[in-house]
Amino acid sequence: MVQQLEVENLTFQHDQRLNSKTLSNVSFTVQKGEWLAIIGHNGSGKSTLAQLLVGLLVPENGQISADGLIMTEDTKWEIRRKIGLVFQNPENQFIGSTVQDDVAFGLENLNMSYNEMKIRVDEALEMVNMTRFRFHEPTNLSGGQMQRVAIAGALALKPSILLLDEAFVMLDPLSRKDLLETLENLKITEDLTIISITHDVNETAVSDRVLVMESGEVVNSGSPEEIFLAEQAIDPPFAEQLRRDLMAKGRSVPETYMTEREMLGWLCK
Amino acid sequence: MNKLILGRYFPGDSWLHRLDPRSKLIAGVAFIFIIFLADSLQAFALLWVFTLFVMRLSGVGFRTYVRGVRPLIWLILFATLMQMLFRTGGATFVDWGPITISEYGIINGFYVFCRFVLIIFFSTVVTLTTKPIDLTDGIGSLLRPLRKLKVPVDELALMLSISLRFIPNLMDETQRIMDAQRARGTQFGEGSLIQQMKTLVPIFLPLFASSLNRAEDMANAMEVRGYQSGTKRSTFRQLSWKRIDTASLFIMVVLAGVLLVVRTI
Predict the structure, then answer these.
(1) Which of A81, A93, A139 is facing B217, going by the closest CB pair?
(2) Is B185 exposed, middle or buried (0-12, 13-18, 19+ CB in 10 A)?
(3) Is residue B214 part of a domain?
(4) Looking at chain B, which residue has its C-alpha nearest residue A103?
(5) Would an 8 Å CB–CB cutoff place B76 in contact with chain A?
(6) Which residues form the ABC transporter domain (chain A) (predicted)?
């Protein structure tokens, strides 16, 4: 297994006057082609973690390395080429004047030739299903469409890691499902590593591994199945909720977490 | 905002819309110089015909152009009147001490009026037929030689394009804040001037704060996507200089030539 991203003892404090750290001693590794979901309540330090991973913030302590490259002031530009970060607010990350200009922004920064940019932009827009809107201006787009553009902007750079900081919040359930499927495909075909910081159970359910954060610390980690069973405080996906409800009613149900499809299969037996 | 026609783009597919922004900018600036070559009624008649023809080509209604002149009409009339009232020479019609209405005064007043209106019409043609973003690209491209003098041309062009991109957002936001303040009982446009100005403070403060937040978010987003100022960037929006652009600049040269000939007669 190739270690794509290694985070060791990461500590960070936003406000020096406070005693509590924003992040304290966070360590984890992500393998190539893995989908890691990071979940936690507001203020648990998830977004701070995302900003640290791309070098927008400098940690007090600890070390980040991507593909064996240790994050320093000198290497941060190279690491940013490997990690594509999509932020939560799509409006503020829309730099270009039209959809295709915005997707090309990151490519322009690489001083890429026009012909190559055109191919990359077309590909990226196709991936998020936004080709129809390529000449649209941001004012004529919905929040969800802008988020798709933001994701396309990150994908156009062909990162090896895609970091999503609650990038799906403005999408309607249908396009969220759509994009999740697109990303799952990319993960397989391009060996893309995905780290998604999220509140959404469905986004968590498709991941390979879940990291639970609380007040700046990693408090639990494991497969989605384990986490949904263990963390009763987190709203589980519909199938798990149904399982618990049935159990509460005294029916005999399997002791393990099931996906919607497994649940359906079991119910129909 | 609706009154300001200068700087508003009218989507269309005319011959002028398809011109390169650079040639339009050059022509627009050249026209201002050319206009000062005209010093006879015939010359102005030619300029009027030329300008009206170009306006017709743009496919935008004449009324739109007149609306563009309206905000400046007082300035234009003032300049015209100054010429008419104080210029002397030729036959004098009215003589009240320093105030005289003379033949030259009337003619010069007319010239000044024509110059203003023609310049506004012509530059309105440029802005109505060119997308603001294309204008920005054009300006950036024309100023490129200044890079040798260490003028950060690309950065300025990017700044300009981002500002243009965020104007609608800021307008929305202003509207939102005004609605929010209205819901809290603020009444805009009432009371004395000072009171009216005071009601603007609770608009600008939140607007300012949110703009700063927005700027920070944006700077982060740009940095994450690899933007570094001072490095060489390619451009996705391509400008292409076509034969038609050279031709239109040639027409400007011919126009200037004709005016020069008429002038020496």
Answers:
(1) A93
(2) exposed
(3) no
(4) B236
(5) no
(6) 5-240
Backbone angles phi, psi at A81, to 5 degrees: -75, -25
* Distance, CA of B100 to CA of B82 (rounded, Å): 10
B220 in A contact zone (CB under 8 Å): yes
Q: Into how many domains does chain B fold?
A: 1
* Gap from A39 CA to chain B (nearest CA, Å): 22
Quote the CA–CA distance of A31 and B243 in Å, as a whole number: 55
Cβ-contact A89, A138 below 8 angstroms: no
Distance CA B59, CA B15 (A): 9
d(CA B24, CA B245): 8
Over residues A191-204, the pLDDT tens digits come to: 899 999 988 888 88
pLDDT tens digits, residue range B77-134?
Answer: 999 998 888 887 777 888 887 788 888 888 989 999 999 999 999 998 998 899 888 8
The C-alpha atoms of residue A68 and residue A75 are separated, in whole angstroms, by: 11
Q: Which two tokens stand for residue B246?
A: 């050279």
Beta bridge partners of residue B218, listed in sequence order: none
The reported pTM is 0.79
Structural domain of B96: 21-170+240-264
Task: Decide if B151 is inside a domain.
Answer: yes
- Residue B76 in any domain: the answer is yes
Optimal mutation site among B170, B234, B235, interface A, most CBs of chain A within 10 A = B234
Contacts of A141 (CB under 8 A, 6+ apart): A99, A133, A149
Does the beta carbon of A159 lie under 8 angstroms from any beta carbon of chain B? no
- CA A252 → CA A14, A244, A249, A256, B54, distances in Å? 49, 11, 9, 12, 83
Lookup: tokens for A149 = 């553009």
How close does chain A come to B98, measured CA to CA in Å? 56
Checking ipTM against 0.85, whether it exceeds it is no
Q: Is residue B246 part of a domain?
A: yes
Instruction: Find, among B31, B14, B2, B43, the residue nearest to B249 by Cα.
Output: B31
Please tell me if residue B168 touches chain A, with a CB cutoff of 8 Å: yes
